[in-house]
Amino acid sequence: FGSVRRAKQVVIQYQDLDGEHWEMELEDLPARIILHEFDHLHGVLFIDHFDENDKRKNADQLQQCVREAGKEIAL
């Protein structure tokens, strides 16, 4: 568990399947969703946003996940 700070408002530019360019302004939950999905596209995980306090609080669970995955990572 931890908290992730996100912008309350975002402006995105995108291209649709027909090649047409668009711009959209999003606020609140839709903005958070876009930022969450953008993180996924760039390989950023929820735990990558943890501050030192969140890392300490979740250290045991994170290490258990690492052990189950059979990989070693530095937290």
List the helices and strands and how they pair.
Elements lengths: L8 E7 L5 E7 H14 L10 H6 L1 H11 L6
Antiparallel strand pairs: 1-2
List its salient traits:
single chain, 75 residues, alpha+beta, two-stranded antiparallel sheet, 3 helices, 41% helix
Verbal overview:
41% of the residues lie in helices and 19% in strands. It has 75 residues and is of the alpha+beta class. A two-stranded antiparallel sheet has the order 1-2. The model has no long low-confidence stretch (mean pLDDT 89).
Task: Write down how many β-strands occur, each being a DSSP E stretch of 2 or more residues.
Answer: 2
Distance between the termini: 15 Å
Write down the overall mean pLDDT. 89
Structural class: alpha+beta
Tally of DSSP helical segments: 3
Q: In what range is the share of β-strand residues?
A: 15-25%
Roughly how many Å is the radius of gyration? 17 Å
**Major beta sheet, strand line-up:** 1-2
How is the quaternary structure best described?
single chain
The succession of helices and strands, N to C, reads EEHHH
Low-confidence stretches: none
Identify the overall geometry. elongated
In which range does the helix fraction lie? 40-55%
What would you say about this model in short?
The chain has 75 residues and is α+β, with helices and mostly antiparallel strands. The chain has helices spanning 28-41, 52-57, 59-69; strands at 9-15, 21-27. It is elongated.
